[in-house]
Amino acid sequence: MDIRTHNGIDRELCGTPQDVAEGYSRVRLRTSKRMVVDGSGLVHGGFIFGLADYAAMIAVNHPNVVLGAAEVRFLKPVKVDEVVVAEAKVGSGEGKKSKVTVTVKGAEAEVFRGEFFCFSLDKHVLAS
Questions:
Q1: pLDDT tens for each residue of 37-67
Q2: Which structural domain range is residue 18 located in?
Q3: What is the CATH number of the domain that holds 55?
Q4: Does the predicted TM-score (pTM) go above 0.85?
């Protein structure tokens, strides 16, 4: 299935799609030194959120999809050089609104879970 959204994203920072199907995506990210916040190798949670958001967007896979809201939980810390995988599934929705459930797992455990509320707009959000 072709990815129809977020084609300009930096995959080194937000992940690389591994599987995309109708209402589903799986995206893999190897964390890097660019993502680290301190001397212990802790990865900033924003990169994990970005991975999850990207997975949600391509699960919806509409050219003009945007995030409206999210309810998330960070469950475990992620360290530099870890590989994490986000899995997104489109659930309920009405009209242009979709609710997408995303889980992010590391090698040993789930590190993040969230619900993303996405909107598929008629035109690009920045269009006049």
A1: 999 999 999 999 999 999 999 999 999 999 9
A2: 11-120
A3: 3.10.129.10
A4: yes
Q: Determine, yes or no, domain membership for 38.
A: yes
23 assigned to some structural domain = yes
Q: How many CB atoms lie within 10 A of CB 2?
A: 6
Task: Find out whether 68 and 119 touch, Cβ atoms under 8 Å.
Answer: yes
Contacts of 52 (CB under 8 A, 6+ apart): 72, 86, 88, 102, 104, 112, 114, 116
Rounded Cα–Cα distance for residues 37 and 16 (Å): 22
- The tally of domains found in the chain comes to 1
Does any domain span residue 57? yes
State how beta strands 24-30 and 83-94 pair.
Answer: antiparallel
